[in-house]
Amino acid sequence: MRYVFSMSRLLKNTIIVLAATGLAFILYVLMQSLAAPKADRNPLEALAKGEMKELVLLKTPPAQPMEPFEGPDGAVTLADFRGKTVLLNLWASWCAPCVAELPSLDRLQGELGDDGFMVLTINMDRSKKEALAFLAKTDIKNLPLYHDNRFAIAQKLSVPGLPSGLPITVLYDKNGIERARLSGGADWNGPEAHALIAAVQESARR
Question: Measured between alpha carbons, how far is 191 from 52 in angstroms, rounded to an integer?
Fold first, then answer.
């Protein structure tokens, strides 16, 4: 009987130890899952709301395209705008969402455009003449015409598994590193967009 009693107590103690060990392990895993991701989480995630709710933050964004496109004074590349935060927008006059959001981009450039920030809109119409004719009918005042009818920039920005249709907007920091992108129309002069741009500019100063 003593032997049976001792075995029973040993079994009970073993179960208690195993249960305590298991509970401690579960608590450790939970603490790690709560603490570790915060360090890796992109701080811009909190800004993906309102007009910016479709914002995409790529862990490994593509390199900034180096293909030339036509500017008001000749051929340029995105590298020519290094040193300032750039909101790149690809649009076409035949793209309804592009046309709808263009005025907000124009107002954004009018309000925030300076030596440290610019809105760079690149038109994808077949000819520069078509784009100029369209702009002549609108009230766009702050966005000079940049043109790329070869879709070279758009092709380089394409990421498998993500929408690639127009409009597409990419936010680059002053070093030419993509920080966020959004496919589809949005109000780019609203508080959510302003907060996003300010956050990227602030992070680049650190």
Answer: 10
Q: Are residues 60 and 154 in the same domain?
A: yes
70 secondary structure, DSSP code: E
Q: Could you give the CA distance from residue 43 to residue 110 in angstroms, rounded to a whole number?
A: 27
Cα–Cα distance list, 103 to 1, 142, 150, 192 (Å) = 90, 10, 24, 16
Question: Residue 101's domain spans which residues?
Answer: 44-205
Residues 34 and 62 in one domain: no
35 & 56 share domain:
no
Query: pLDDT digit string (tens) for 133-189?
Result: 999 999 999 999 999 999 999 999 998 888 888 999 999 999 999 999 999 999 999
On whether both 32 and 99 belong to a single domain, the answer is: no
Structural contact between residues 102 and 93, judged by C-beta atoms closer than 8 angstroms: no
Contact assessment for residue 131 and residue 69, using Cβ atoms and an 8 Å cutoff: no
The verdict on 64 and 37 lying in the same domain is no
**Residues 128 and 117 both lie in one domain:** yes
Q: At what angle do helices 191-205 and 96-112 cross, to 10 degrees?
A: 60
How far is residue 181's CA from residue 60's CA, in Å, rounded to a whole number? 12
Rg over alpha carbons for the chain, rounded to the nearest Å, is 26
Predicted TM-score (pTM) of the model is 0.80
Q: CB-side exposure of 167: number of CA atoms within 13 Å?
A: 30
Instruction: Identify whether 144 is preceded by a cis peptide bond (ω within 30 of 0).
Output: no
Count of the separate structural domains present in the chain:
2
